[in-house]
Design brief:
Distance between the termini: 43 Å
Helix content: 55-70%
CATH architecture: Orthogonal Bundle
Number of helices: 9
Oligomer: single chain
Structural class: mainly alpha
Largest sheet: none
Radius of gyration: 18 Å
Number of strands: 0
Number of domains: 1
Length: about 200
């Protein structure tokens, strides 16, 4: 028998959902405790019943955002793979998609926050580094076993950089063209078609 989560656990999850969207939308500096609590429909005073500090919130929000991204990627990859795409193609086509360009609030926390990560408190930097490692591992899982050492790191770096540059150009023809060029280059270099 599954036990229903407590009210406190549900409230905690609501705060994390709100904070995870906010850090991807506005960066670490765009996350104020009062604003997060208000957006979550809660009072500022209730914050410390859930988190010891703002940095503790940021750590958990990063972890939460990472789980959300991993789940979205897995669902999208499963759909693309069911249509015959290799795991690598499925990942690249999903990550470097027009939808991801226009949807930073629900997208990859690494792409949204990479330039800010080094300037955070040690515990936040540590959580951010875990998100980077997770992305590299996810890429590595899609590459052939005989891929050269460092390939997953190089591919993940190109994915994140391409998405950041495309977002800098905007959700327009120029930004979409940048993503398309990187998709094509990565697929030409690393995709191994699924045997049919």
């Amino acid at each position: 028998m599954e036990i229903a989560p407590s009210r406190k656990a549900l409230t905690h999850e609501r705060i994390l959902d709100t904070a995870a969207r906010a850090i991807r939308r506005a960066g670490f500096q765009g996350v104020g405790v009062a604003d997060i609590m208000k957006e979550a429909g809660l009072t500022h005073g209730g914050f410390y019943a859930h988190f010891a500090s703002r940095d503790a919130l940021l750590v958990e929000a990063l972890e939460h955002a990472g789980r959300q991204s991993a789940e979205r990627i897995a669902r999208g990859n499963a759909v693309r793979e069911a249509k015959g795409a290799s795991p690598f193609r499925a990942l690249i086509e999903g990550y470097l998609s027009d939808r991801h360009l226009s949807n930073a609030e629900e997208g990859c926390a690494v792409a949204a926050l990479a330039s800010e990560m080094p300037r955070q408190a040690p515990e936040v930097r540590s959580a951010a580094a875990q998100r980077v490692r997770g992305l590299v591992e996810r890429v590595g899982d899609t590459l052939p076993a005989d891929a050269a050492p460092g390939t997953a790191t190089a591919v993940a770096s190109q994915m994140v950089g391409a998405l950041q540059l495309a977002r800098a150009l905007g959700n327009n023809a120029e930004g979409r063209a940048l993503l398309a060029a990187n998709r094509s280059a990565l697929l030409a270099q690393h995709d191994t078609p699924v045997p049919g």
